[in-house]
Amino acid sequence: MYIAAVQISSVSSFFQLIGVLLIFLFVLLLTYLTTRWIAGYQKGHSFNKNLKIIETLKIAQNKYIQIIEAGGEYLVIALGKDEVCLLAKLTADQLTDLQTEELPSGVGAETFKELLDRFKNHLPKK
Prior knowledge:
It is a single chain. The protein is α+β, with helices and mostly antiparallel strands and about 130 residues long. Helix content is about 45%, strand content about 25%. The chain has a four-stranded antiparallel β-sheet, with no helix packed on it. It is flat, with a radius of gyration of 27 Å. The model has no long low-confidence stretch (mean pLDDT about 80).
């Protein structure tokens, strides 16, 4: 009698664990979908239709250089904590697209597998 009760209890615990895992996965999926929806909503309902930030470079704490597109014109600006300065005006021909430009050799050329193999080689052998 005692063995049957233990078996029923362990089966019940197993199904309870599966139920909790399914609820967790459902909440995780719901969170992911909600985040994607909110990001798409905010991107589609952007209030600044004429301004677009093309690129940003952080040069110090609270100091940035940005390339922005304003009404078809490209501007290079310096942003500080309390100031904004115009550095230069660019044409579309002066901009380089990083996606079409090849990276120098050794920069971003390694795959994850190569990095993992290199890391494994540094581990002490048993």
